[in-house]
Known about the structure:
Number of helices: 2
Distance between the termini: 15 Å
CATH superfamily: Pleckstrin-homology domain (PH domain)/Phosphotyrosine-binding domain (PTB)
CATH class: Mainly Beta
Number of strands: 3
Mean pLDDT: 78
CATH topology: PH-domain like
Number of domains: 1
CATH architecture: Roll
Shape: globular
Strand content: 15-25%
Radius of gyration: 13 Å
Helix content: 25-40%
Largest sheet: 3 strands, antiparallel
Strand order of the largest sheet: 1-2-3
Structural class: alpha+beta
Amino acid sequence: MVSHLALNLLQAYSNKDTPKGVIRLSDIIRVFQDVRKRDHLMKNIFMLETPHRTYQMQAPTIMSMYIWIACLELPVSALKLGTP
């Protein structure tokens, strides 16, 4: 179920912008919603904490933010990468 949601979300983003870099799933220590009060342009912000830095990400909707957080919180060992 989660992988289907993640695939749909990835397809929605694939036509938007060119990637700015790569964040390895195995480097993610923590994923959390940014709860600081912000103006209307800075909604749906979540953070990815890695050993080297903390990345600030913005999703287009609150629901897509929750989906990103749920997917990124999955342990890497739970993913079936490279298998059909």
